[in-house]
């Protein structure tokens, strides 16, 4: 049987490369944790041993032992705002964001990572939590020289994005979240895990089966949400919740509740005739809303953004 997702990847790779991105792998810690990215071709660090090019069919390079994070380069006057697209459970980066990369790459420096355990991103760690993902992603972005940026997170990627914003306020300036709970408590009791039907919090947060996904969704929609106390008040400039009006996984009422708890810096916009996969179901409308938001929040850094 043909795997339709795998079958479309050669075309997606061609289109993403045509949009000006190149695939690279970042050695996060020198101990086997690596994250694969699509990055702007003119932003690839050429002389840093922590970053290596990905050549289809070529053997993997040896991991570097250099664990020192390079300092962020000073911002240049003509630098374009950076946008990081963080995927969810269903598929890796460019499959999830296939309709957004080209639309954004004309005016922004777009970075599309594969979270750990997706695509070519791997780690010997058994930690599957959004917090671990966020720390590794932040370290990789810094090694790529990414400074303050906008982060767009879908589903599980939304949880990772909020964790990263909380822990790295100098890196994440704006957030767009779709189809996600913003965060869940990292510590879940053994009794709760047994009741849900999973063996560990790692299995819950990164499910590998339909049963596991249902378990995650059940706790995500019925458990009291945890919201970082300082996240939106002290650091983030603005948050956009961009929702499918007919999302049957994380419904619009949940999004309204999150907006109320996150406060005045948060804007909720819904898209009609769209469900959980809003960015794939109605990409034109989603892209227009996303570009309008990015243009408004980055106006001070890029006075004349074209849409």
Automatic annotation (TrEMBL):
Residues 46-76 are annotated as: Disordered. InterPro entries: AB_hydrolase_1 (IPR000073), AB_hydrolase_fold (IPR029058), Meta-cleavage_hydrolase (IPR052370). Pfam families: Abhydrolase_1. Residues 81-189 form the AB hydrolase-1 domain. This is AB hydrolase-1 domain-containing protein. The lineage of its organism: Eukaryota, Viridiplantae, Streptophyta, Embryophyta, Tracheophyta.
């Amino acid at each position: 049987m043909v795997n339709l997702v795998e079958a479309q990847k050669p075309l997606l790779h061609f289109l993403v490369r045509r949009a000006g991105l190149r695939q690279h792998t970042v050695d996060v810690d020198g101990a086997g944790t690596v994250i694969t990215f699509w990055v702007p071709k003119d932003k690839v660090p050429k002389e840093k041993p922590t970053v290596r090019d990905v050549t289809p069919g070529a053997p993997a390079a040896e991991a570097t032992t250099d664990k020192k994070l390079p300092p962020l380069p000073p911002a240049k006057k003509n630098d374009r705002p950076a946008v990081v697209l963080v995927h969810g459970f269903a598929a890796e980066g460019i499959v999830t964001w296939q309709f957004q990369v080209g639309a954004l790459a004309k005016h922004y420096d777009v970075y599309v990572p594969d979270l750990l355990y997706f695509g070519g991103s791997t780690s010997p760690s058994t930690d599957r939590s959004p917090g671990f993902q966020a720390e590794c992603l932040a370290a990789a972005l810094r090694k790529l020289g990414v400074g303050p940026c906008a982060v767009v997170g879908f589903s599980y990627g939304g949880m990772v994005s909020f964790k990263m914003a909380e822990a790295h306020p100098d890196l994440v300036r704006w957030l767009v979240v779709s189809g996600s709970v913003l965060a869940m408590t990292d510590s879940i009791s053994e009794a709760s895990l047994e009741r849900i039907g999973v063996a560990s919090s790692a299995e819950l947060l990164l499910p590998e089966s339909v049963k596991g996904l249902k378990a995650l969704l059940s706790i995500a929609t019925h458990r009291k949400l945890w919201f970082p106390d300082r996240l939106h008040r002290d650091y983030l400039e603005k948050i956009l919740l961009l929702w499918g009006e007919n999302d049957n996984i994380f419904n619009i009422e949940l999004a309204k509740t999150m907006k109320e708890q996150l406060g005045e810096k948060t804007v909720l916009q819904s898209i009609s005739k769209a469900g959980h996969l809003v960015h794939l179901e109605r990409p034109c409308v989603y892209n227009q809303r996303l570009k309008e938001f990015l243009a408004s929040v980055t106006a001070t850094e890029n006075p004349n953004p074209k849409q």
